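Aim 2, interim progress. The first record below pairs a target sequence with its structure tokens.
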Amino acid sequence: MNTNRIGLSRTAWSLLVVGAALGSTYAGAAERDGTAAARYQRERAVCTSGQSNQDRVTCLREAGAAFAQARHEGLSDGPSPYARNARQRCEALPQDDRQGCLARMQGQGTTSGTAASGGIYRELVTPEVTPPNPAVPLGLPPGEPAK
């Protein structure tokens, strides 16, 4: 009978699928290590050139720690952690200020300063139009009584 052959082909198929999955996982880890290594080299260059706002020893230590974490956990370079952090900071504000905060974090308005100079100042001017006061008639000069 062919039942033995079917069992072997299922086993072989299962081993093939598992092998392919492990191979792709290894390839992803290797790619992540390559990206992490490139990022580490860029951060190290910033540290050694003095362009960081930290002292050289601290900068190199943090770059090394980020590289180690990226190799083990896959540290993300994507914008989503930054955007999530900005949203969380804005959510702590009262409702009236929250929309302006989110707009500034998305790049609206003007930005000045740097972290090295003590902080980044973001400003967004939003004009507010208030309705006229109905108790004061329009067209009269100030101080003249209404007739």
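The second target in this work package is listed in the same format:
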Amino acid sequence: MTASQSSPTDPGEQVLPALPRDSEGPVFSEPWQAQAFAMAVRLHEQGHFTWTEWATELSRHIGDAGPTDTTEYYEHWLVTLESIATSSSLTTVDELTDRKQAWQRAAEATPHGQPIELGAELAG
């Protein structure tokens, strides 16, 4: 498959031209980027949005950031994922905020070099 073709998990460069990819498909520099990508693919497969709707929303977020924006592509991807999840009533802003705060507390409670686990902030 060439980079210009699409697969069930890669909408293709015609739909998402800015998606970082090589000849084998999407590429990620950090694990969370792959996880955000996988979540978006799964929600698409479940029928929560089309790739065209995704691209429109992603473009809106990137456009709203303006020409001097230095945000990494997948940070826009994550904001788009959150936006679609809340507008589709898959979650709420409050639930997202609570989960982000729980992960932050867990990160702060985790010794350096150890994997961060949700719930670690409760261990004592």
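Helices lie at 31-45, 51-65, 73-87, 93-109. This observation will shape the mutagenesis plan for the next reporting period.
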